[in-house]
C-alpha cells in the first residue's frame, strides 16, 4: 500500500477523533491528524539525526529527528513511536515522553502537514539498520554541533525538527 493511501484518524484541536482520511487527503486538505517524533541519544549524550530519503514526498534529503511517524487509525501514540523506530531504524527501546501533545504545521510544495504530535526520547548505543525508503543517511551528533548547524543554517533541516529542537533546548 502506498503511504499516501494509509488511513489516519482525523482529530479536532482537543485530540478527539472526528473521522478518517488517507494520508494523501490529509496532506492535500490540511486535515488535522496525529504524529510522533522521537529523539534517540547515545550514552555520550549525542543525538542521532537522519537524512530523509530522496524518495520522500516532503523535504527529501533534509535532516530530521531520529525518527517520526504518523499515527495510524486506531493506533495509540506510544505504539506508533515504537513502530516507527522499528520500521525506520530497526531499533526497539524504552521511550520517555518529553513533549506532550502540541501542534506542528508545515507546508511543502502543495502538501500541508497539520499534526497533533507527541515527542519522545530514548537512549540507545546499539546497531541500527536504516530503511533506505525512509532514510538516506544517519549519525550521532554532539549537541553543540547540532546547535551550530541550526544557528548557521549550514544544512537543511525539516521544519518540525527545528520546532522540536528549539523546544527541548529552551
Number of domains: 1
| pLDDT averaged residue by residue | 95
Approximate strand percentage: 35-45%
**Which descriptor suits the 3D outline?**
globular
- How many beta-strand elements? 9
Q: Which CATH top level class fits?
A: Alpha Beta
The largest sheet, given as strand count, sense and whether it forms a barrel, is: 7 strands, mixed
CATH topology: Nucleoside Triphosphate Pyrophosphohydrolase
Residues in helix, %: 10-25%
Residue ranges: pLDDT <50 for 5 or more in a row?
Answer: none
Rg to the nearest angstrom? 15 Å
Architecture, according to CATH? Alpha-Beta Complex
Helix-strand pattern: EEHEEEEHEEEHH
Protein structure class: alpha+beta
CATH superfamily name?
Nucleoside Triphosphate Pyrophosphohydrolase
Give a structural overview.
This protein has four helices and nine strands, in the order ββαββββαβββαα. With about 170 residues, it is of the alpha+beta class. The mean pLDDT is about 95.
List the helices and strands and how they pair.
Blueprint: E1 7-11, E2 17-22, H1 23-29, E3 32-41, E4 47-52, E5 63-64, E6 67-70, H2 77-89, E7 96-108, E8 111-123, E9 135-141, H3 143-152, H4 159-168
Parallel strand pairs: 3-8
Antiparallel strand pairs: 1-2, 3-4, 3-6, 4-5, 4-9, 7-8
Summarize the structure.
With 170 residues, the chain is an alpha+beta fold. The chain is 24% helix and 39% strand.
Amino acid at each position: 500500500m502506498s503511504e499516501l493511501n494509509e488511513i489516519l484518524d482525523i482529530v479536532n484541536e482537543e485530540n478527539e477523533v472526528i473521522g478518517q482520511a488517507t494520508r494523501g487527503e490529509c496532506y492535500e486538505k490540511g486535515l488535522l491528524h496525529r504524529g510522533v517524533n522521537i529523539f534517540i541519544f547515545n550514552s555520550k549524550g549525542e543525538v542521532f539525526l537522519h537524512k530523509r530519503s530522496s524518495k520522500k514526498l516532503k523535504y527529501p534529503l533534509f535532516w530530521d529527528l531520529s525518527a517520526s511517524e504518523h499515527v495510524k487509525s486506531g493506533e495509540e501514540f506510544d505504539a506508533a513511536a515504537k513502530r516507527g523506530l522499528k520500521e525506520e531504524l530497526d531499533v526497539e527501546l524504552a521511550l520517555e515522553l518529553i513533549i506532550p501533545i502540541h501542534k506542528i504545521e508545515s507546508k511543502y510544495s502543495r502538501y500541508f502537514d497539520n499534526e497533533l504530535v507527541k515527542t519522545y526520547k530514548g537512549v540507545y548505543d546499539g546497531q541500527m539498520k536504516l530503511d533506505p525508503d525512509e532514510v538516506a543517511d544517519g549519525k550521532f551528533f554532539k549537541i553543540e554541533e547540532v546547535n551550530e548547524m541550526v544557528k548557521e543554517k549550514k544544512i537543511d533541516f525539516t521544519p518540525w525538527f527545528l520546532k522540536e529542537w528549539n523546544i527541548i533546548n529552551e
